[in-house]
Amino acid sequence: MSATGWLGYQWNVNIVGRTFLRVQRWQVEQRVGGPARWKSEYLTPPLTISPRAKELVARHWLEARYANLHRKVAWVTSGAPVELLKALDFFVIYPENHAAICGTARVAVEISSEAEDAGYSRDICSYARTDFGSMLSGKTPVGKLPKPDLLLACTNICQTVLFWYRVLARHFNVPLILIDTPFVYYDEAPEYAVQFVKRQLEEAIPTLERVAGRSLDERKLREVGRLSRMASQLWMEVMERNDHRPAPITAFDQFTQMAPIVEMRGDAATVDLYAAMLKEVDERIARGIGAVKNERKRLLWDNLPIWYRLRYLAEFLGEHGIAIVASTYTNAWGELATMIDPEQPFESMARTYTYPILNRGTGHKLATMKRMIEAYHLDGVILHSDRSCKPYSIGQMDQRDRLIRDCSVPALLLEADHNDSRCYSEEQVANRLAAFVEMLR
Amino acid sequence: MLSGIPHRTETIRAYKDRGGLVAAVLPIHYPRALLRAFDILPVEVWGPPKVEASYGAAHLQPYVCSIVRNALSFLQTGGLDGVDVIVVPHACDSLQGLGSILIDFIRPRQPVIPLYLPRGRRESDTAFFADEFRSMYRRLEEVTHCSPTNSELMESIRREEATDKLLAQLHQRSSCLALTQMEFYRLVRAREYLTAETFSELAQVALSQTIEAPKNGTPILLSGIVPEPMSVFESIAEMGGLVVADDLACCGRRLYPPGESEDAFYHMAESILHAPPDPTRGTPIQERRDYLLRLIAASGARGVAFYDVKFCEPELYDLPDLRIELQEAGIPSVGIEVDLNDPLSHQALTRIEAFLEMIA
Amino acid sequence: MTRDERRMTVSRGVCALGIDVGSTTVKIVAVDAGGDLAWHFLEQADPRVEDQVARLLDRARKETSQTSEVWDVPLVATGYGRKLVRQAGRQVTEITCHARGVYRELAHGGTLVDIGGQDSKVIGISPKGDVVDFSMNDKCAAGTGRFLENTASRMGVPLDRMGQVALAASDEVSISSTCTVFAESEVISLIAHGVAVESILRGLHRSLIRRIVAMIRTVGLVPPLMLSGGVVQNQAIPRMLEQETGEKVVLPSYPQLMGAYGAALIALEMRV
What's the pTM? Predict the structure, then answer.
């Protein structure tokens, strides 16, 4: 790292950038409190902590702009054992999260088209196409993405990440570390599979250290593990508070607030943020405030969100007094919290990263959904049949049938895509939702 | 001309009559030798085409490829008659999902044995794969109440390796054999269900029947997953094309080299993990390019036809970069997508034909 | 060229024939020894291809003043129904034929875009006239003339006025549906909401053009950008294509005949 690089980073990020973001947040906070600004008559205004959360995320992207100047950068998959990278002081970027931002900002189609023009099929994951499009064209709503010095792909969310990251590896010509987590078809992963993951983690260290330019500090790893577990536990508690009626926040709020737990897990600021969020959620519960003003029915959302239609879906359902209070997707980042053991980092990381819901059988996901219906007192389920996400979507047809049969709740299979609005038919979705809402009466 | 390749049904019946068992095996990579050591005949399920697809469609969304959807339809409409065990290797998200819903929801009478495929070629991958095979061994023990010894396993392995050697020779010499394109592929694909012994016999006969003059036709390399419908070979021949090299998942990508270890499980793992480059096994794009260029140079192919089943993600990610790299090396290519349930469309045929005209 | 003019030039003798059996129209072209266009004819495609081809060959013979019974002129067939033309000495795909025809007429390489009724193609042609790459949109109607036909007809706009109406629009509505069927519902919904027909039509053209441009990018745009196919008669198409690509679009004199012309040129080579 050069001295000018370090100076440039300090100036742009810590002095100018952060101040600017702080001012921005203050301005928004002043405005958000007032009821006049909030337009929806069915939905409670967002959490007052939202500007702070946005600031945290914005700061992350601000740092990203200048990261290449003075830090080593790693691009990783959302289920990656990020603790190792954080302990080695990598600046971590999640292309999936960036793609989701593009989806929410409604620029994903434009950016994906760059990839499609270059020959990438529209039958591949819309996150990957968004990422390739951004990589090829430089287009991004976050200013500038830093180039990776290292790529790390963990197959616990799907197999296609490996195909995706191989393309990135070729394009950026940097090392690609594979953490292959064998799929858990039954209730438990065989011990040799967990040991295989552990071994891969251990054997990745030399390459990680070489690229990072430093040795792994066990103490730092423990600390990061501890912070990671704390943040995950707090996040889990925030979600679990939704068993109250009315639910203090909706799954849509969770989708918006989940960025830090995914991409800044292991940071102290993330722990603070979710602690504060939990406090505000408890205040809402104490005052009987529900995210949906006249909560009548409560639903579970399965699969990824439809990033470019969050507002529409929240309002359409809110208008009918329907709150989506839980989702298997946001749950994924909380339910493994108990497995992280800072004292046994490699052993516990191997388990934590083998057991995410997407790495487990379709029967397990059904059992999870049933448990959530029970725990959150739910009246129905929306299963988003996400064209781009086969590991999440395959099995939904059978899961839906069994939810209807065994839990006696209506369950809707909604065909769309998490990031590609061209796979979303307004008319069809509106029709199906309307019919489903009628079934909930 | 090759006569008398035994059909699937008669092969299965004959094997069962002798007291053996039958395994329905989904794509792609799995340890044949392990199954045979338990006197189980592996019969592979690649689709097949022309099944009543609505059965599969009741469980799998339309964006799941037709190989997987047809497989489910097939298993549910009589495909499991006479089958004693189902093996579902892991190759992609769709096969992962199929294995899972078979175990959790469909619950056929037959035991379902999933098999994870490691995506690297590190020592840790080989060790894990060996452990997966040991786990599979234990499941097969339960099914058959047999426990083959290491030397029995090694014997089965050697038999398969000898057959695979003949298979490799068939591919190398395909242009000089007295077989039409279609006959050649019928033969090599018979490895999907024949015993190693029977296949070896047929292979030896085919290898002994060579032709004087090399075959005519615009030479191409065929890459992809599975060549269905098989009539594509007749069409290619009619258009003046000739497949001189093969990079198909069901054929050329499964030319397994012999393993080295004395431990049967480790040996089988080594063998599969050192098979030719394969996107489902995590091979980097550059390696795939180098391999294809070597194949092209050795066979004289003038272009590559990527023949894929629609929605096949392992194939789709690599294609753009692979095609650019091939183009830069002076090798044009064409991409064709098919659905197993549709006859080869006019459009697909026109693409192949236009491509052959272009490189002629 | 009038029919009389055509008849007069035929005195040099028809040396080869090309027939393009498309899904919407069938085109037949005769060339002279020098490879120039000597005679042509076009009509709606009849599902009974063989009968239609026989009739057209008869007409060709009569109109080019051939008197002898045995007509020894080589024939090459191209297009969707090419395999059904028994009389053809050879069948060649539309890709090769279009490239050949356009190259002969415009005398340079570049990027050829052919938008047909049921499919569209982009063909990269080398300076020497060889096909170096091609891309086809043949899986669905959304990138073809059919897309416009279907939706325009729902709006009550005659096909031959589509282009004018679209170009006359002062603004444009974006059509998000990629599927022709869904696009129709979207259009109906827009009309119900009072959106102007011209704006919708322009948006539909934009969708089609964008799809074409995406195909062009796959092949790589090497200027000049050339256009062929029946849909090209819709003036909005070349105009909007120029807008989207920033490239001037070059049209041959008979855009719809390029396939048959190229086939005839290939047939001419067979004579040698």
Answer: 0.89
